[in-house]
Amino acid sequence: xxxxxxxxxxSTAISVHILSILSVFALIFAESSIYSISVIxxxxxxxxxxxxxxxxxxxxIREFRFLPFGAEIxxxxxxxxxxxxxxxxxxxxxNFVLAAVMYILFLFFPNPVILFTVxxxxxxxVVNLVPVRGFDGGRMVRCIALSRLEYEKALKFxxxxxxxxxxxxxxxxxxxxRAAAFNISLIIICLYLFVxxxxxxx
Length: 202
Prior knowledge:
Elements: E1 4-9, E2 12-17, H1 18-31, H2 34-56, E3 61-67, E4 70-75, H3 81-108, H4 112-128, H5 136-148, H6 151-179, H7 184-198
Parallel strand pairs: 2-3
Antiparallel strand pairs: 1-2, 3-4
Helix pairs in contact: 1-2, 2-3, 2-4, 3-4, 3-5, 5-6
């Protein structure tokens, strides 16, 4: 029995895990507020940043997978380390740009939802920059290490940076949850981040 549905949009294969649909509905109904939509909006902006750079470098998108916790983009062809570094950075950068735009909007139209979007987008960007496998920061460290160090030394450097970063990730998650008064949407984001780490056979 498969838990994924597959279809195509043009030449791009789309895979949707049934739990990804359920997780979206759970997020929306658990909080019953527009804040959950804000979380999805920030996540979408993040992925669009990656997609824009993939298209810019002409790598093409072979498959887009909607997973129970997040999404995965598979390119049609491999790119060099410098291009992959920029593609990895594009997601967090898109979140920072979104946060800046929303903050300017907040200055003119003070609203808690807009402010939450600013905080959520920055949080998503910063945490994704933490150099842990499965995150954008992890891919960036991998690109830099493998392009500048000998293979064995690069692997050792990557492993040490991951272990140190897990401590930072834990601290950031706890601080964010407390600062947001245990907001359900933010808790779900943190759970997603930790699952993303440990599903990579840490």
